[in-house]
Amino acid sequence: xSLPPEKAxxxxxxxxxxxxxxxxxxxxxxxxxxTIREELAPDQQQLSTxxxxxxxxxxxxxxxxxxxxxFVTDSVDQELPSSPKQPVCFTxxxxxxxxxxxxxxxxxxxxxxxxxxxxxxxxxxxxxxxxGQVCSTFTLCLHFRNQRFRSKPxxxxxxxDFRDGFLLEVHRESLGDGTRMADSxxxxxxxxxxxxxxxxxxxxxxxxxxxxxFLEWRxxxxxxxxxxxxxxxxxxxxxxxxxxxxxxxxxxEMYPPLNQTLSQEVVNTQLALERQKTAEKxxxxxxxxxxxxxxxxxxxxxxxxxxxxxxxxxxxxINRPVCSYIKPLRAGRLLDTPxxxxxxxxxxxxxxxxxxxxxxxxxxxxxxxxxxxxxKGDCExxxxxxxxxxxxxxxxxxxxxGTKAKGIPHAWVMTCGTDGTVTxxxxxxxxxxxxxPVNPDESPVAEQPKPLYPYRTIGCVFNHQMFLxxxxxxxxxxxxxxxxxxxxxxxxxxxxxxxxxxxxxxxxSLPPFPPLCASTIDASxxxxxxxxxxxxxxxxxxxxxxxxxxxxxQLSYLLSPALASYExxxxxxxxxxxxxxxxxxxxxxPDGHTFKGFPIHFVYRNARRAFAxxxxxxxxxxxxxxxxxxxxxxxxxxxxxxxxxxxxVWIMFACECAS
Length: 659
Description:
Elements: H1 5-21, H2 24-39, H3 49-58, H4 61-68, E1 71-73, E2 78-79, E3 88-91, E4 98-101, E5 108-118, E6 137-144, E7 147-150, E8 154-155, E9 163-170, H5 184-188, E10 194-201, E11 207-215, E12 227-235, E13 244-255, H6 264-299, E14 311-313, E15 319-321, H7 338-347, E16 349-350, H8 368-374, E17 376-377, H9 379-392, E18 397-403, E19 409-416, E20 422-425, E21 432-435, E22 457-462, E23 467-470, E24 490-492, H10 495-502, H11 523-544, H12 553-558, H13 560-572, H14 578-588, E25 593-602, H15 607-615, H16 618-624, E26 632-641, E27 647-658
Parallel strand pairs: 16-17
Antiparallel strand pairs: 1-3, 2-7, 3-4, 5-9, 5-13, 6-7, 6-8, 6-10, 10-11, 12-13, 14-15, 18-19, 18-22, 19-20, 20-21, 22-23, 23-24, 25-27, 26-27
Helix pairs in contact: 6-10, 7-9
Subcellular location: Cytoplasm, Cytoskeleton, Microtubule organizing center, Centrosome, Centriole
Organism: Suricata suricatta (Meerkat)
Family: Belongs to the CEP76 family.
């Protein structure tokens, strides 16, 4: 097996480090001297290499070295959007720590270590988990310049035992110098922060966003030897964004070590200039937005009640222009079509931002990393992600802000075709609707299109480059005309003004967009596990009712094509394979027997929760609790995986019994 040059040098470096650690060179010198004294005849002038190797082998030196060296591959901690070279892991048997290296000697790296946490006071009374006991866990997710990492889960505690290291490659993608090692001055101009998101997972697998923090790493450039330690205070999210949730101890180290460090004064000056420049751009945009809003209200005073959303608060309570939440996002080879992208967004969980007490909806538009790591979010998070993906596929996509029935605020996505076709995409369900406007001036007798979509009013539309306020006499969606170039119907914001604060790299306060990660779920194994759990739950439930349970494995298998067909239809809006399924069932069910089936769909993998939901359906309960002669039950589970370990879980319960 031949290794590429960079791998060979990497391997040599690792072996050299271990040989130095074991002082192998010193031991070889001792054995060489001893061998010369004891075994070299007076007439011999030199030892051959074979003689030396025999001596080393006889004294066990070679065996010791081979025992100590153990190369494995491991990529649990690193989630990568594509398939770059695998990290080589080096295990030292004297140490419990796994040291991972993926070093290209021509590139510069930032080694970020998380060395424990403290003052997570919400978990002050948390009991120490027993060995093997399921408990709530913390997971730290990181994103830096298109690289994503995830820590090992640690039990929730007042002082969580984080012990993880992340090797972040620092590189310049622009200016044509991506292959050169970045020096101190170059790295000082890289303003991307390390985005850290802390997720809590409870014993039922439900996730909660605990904190979202942007780490300014460039202080290490001005520290002695390119090494510095930081204490990072994590603040809560949403209504608790001013409350501390805990502290992380972090160590930063540049690798290879910097030949020349900058003075701390230079680093601080650069950071201050960037903050000043960003603040000025944001101030000018705010002045412009206020002027635009005044002009919008002058068109019609009733515009004051329309949902024209120019700014939105993120999870840290910071107001940002809504256009900054959108960016064309390419899914690589993880998603093939816009409709598949819509299905992916649809299977991410829906959860409104938590609010303490009553008083209406709490606003919280999450940054993309927080949304993806939590695997659930509000309708705005779904719409922003879907719009970004559709833009990545080359469509003209916008997020629409308006209301549904009963005046409930809502966000959805709209695409405008080159032929003028306007399509609404509901990001929470994956449904698509063609918009055909109703003409209010038509005769009452004339036939008008009946809208199938659930949207009632629309206040504004926006994407990463444009923001348009609806200034038509009525904001009703069904009579709205989506000619976005007609300024008498849609009042645009200056694209230059939007670009000044929302274009990539325009300000240092914009969170960079992370890439999508492939699923880590094994669909076959997970399907099987859920199916086994459901069989046990059904058998226990029937036993409580005094009923016996007989499973028909062949019938269970025959349900698979139906589940695959349902998912295919959700993804493509095309129904296929139903005829074969029905024919197979007719052949499998004996004459004089009745077949009943009940399919249901979930976006989580908790079998007990899914079973409880199924029992609430009278039709499903009738199948599970079926009584009669020759009752045979069947259940089939099919898990379809999507990026970010999102999944669509299809379950079908069925029974056959004598009529």
